[in-house]
TrEMBL record:
It comes from the Bacteria. This is EmrB/QacA subfamily drug resistance transporter. SUPFAM superfamilies: MFS general substrate transporter. The chain crosses the membrane at residues 30-53, 65-84, 96-122, 128-146, 153-172, 184-204, 216-239, 245-264, 285-308, 320-341, 350-370, 376-398, 410-434, 440-462. The keyword Transmembrane applies. Residues 7-20 have a biased composition (Pro residues).
Amino acid sequence: MGAATPPHTPHPAIPGSPVPLAPPRTRRRALFGCLVLVTALGALDQTIVATALPAIVAELGAPSRVSWVVTAYALALTAAMPAAGALGDRFGHRRVLALSVAVFVAASAACGFAGDVGFLAAARLAQGLGGAGLLVLPQAVVAGAVPARERAAFLGPLGAVYAIATVAGPLLGGWLTDVTSWRWVFWLNLPLGAAAAVLVRTAVPTGRGHAGRTRFDTLGAVLLATVATGLVLVTTAAAETGWNAATTTGAALTAVAGAVALGWERRAANPVLPVALLRDRTVRLCCLLALAGGIGLFGVLAYVPTWVQELYRTSATTSGLLLLPVTAGIVAGVNASGFAVRRWGVWRPFPVAGCALSGGAAAALAWTGAAPLPVVAALLALLDLGTGLFMQIVVVVAQDAGGPRVVGAVTAGLAFVRETGVTVGAAVLGALVARAAGGSYAPVFTTTAACFATGLLCALGLPRRLLESKS
């Protein structure tokens, strides 16, 4: 074990600024409440519509197209993430966050008034554009207001809110549909969004941005959005119809678009996604860890309820309740690691231990077969505890390595990579389930374990350094 190196300075190729001063306690509480609400809004709408789909079909018809109500939001969310972060860096995070809230609320109102599935899907697309800012910019706002060493503890609860909202979304959506109407799944965002808009104006620090004289990288944003669109469309089609000539061709075209986008972003004067920062080993390894977390955690969780229902012959409610220990594991992991980093400044052990724990739990799920449900619940909780230990840490470390001028772009890049992992992981694991004999889910957990083993190698390659303490 080597000695810890001094605190990391911003990336040498990018001009930095002094470590941010922590805002007063009352201001910080208001900021925290604002960002919790904003994050919950963006995360809820990823899953809240799922249980309302039957009611939407019953009223609007078009069952063959109703899946676009879900897909449109995911597509726009993923596609707009890089642009949201870069626009925040350029024009100020508070200004772009306020615009994102406004777009999200207006699109939510339009969703509630939809008279057909086509209009609803289009409104969901607009809602996803706003949702990208809601999920990316809170972490960038924290980077500008809180020193790196304390940032992990501040971001930990936001990660927990994201996890809880994602799991609670279907339950809340089903309840609203049963007691009122599916339209209130969207109209609920109006009062919450109005409160968020007020808090953004009053609690989020004003930032001037770094617009300079260079133009915004519009072509880069379009190319990255094209790649994200291709990923969502190809993986959705592959999950529904399997791999055939059409899906294979789509995957090849998406790969070409990805290569073109990366080539352009390397040459752009002010790139939306600063891929040049990947030359920094810390940023590169944090991106790989975000990808591993996306594939390994959220990819496998998409199939846990179905697996439990098929293997244990349980009800949908019971299988859904099994996600509660999953949520508890994430909440415990992100908060424990965040508070530990704030106290000691040492962060590297958490990605190492987290990947080892998650990989071991996934391997145990693959080997145990039909273990008792309490054992399954415990292993799932350990899998998520491990991922929670490094889920937010890698964001803070990458922000610190990149420097303050591109903190939004770095944050958005990590979110983009994670969402790509979620999308691709769900499709790949779904294909494994479809091809396995007797619907066995062992390949899903084996692949997940291998993914976290790769993440462990990346974590071991991270440098030993401390995060900045407050000045």
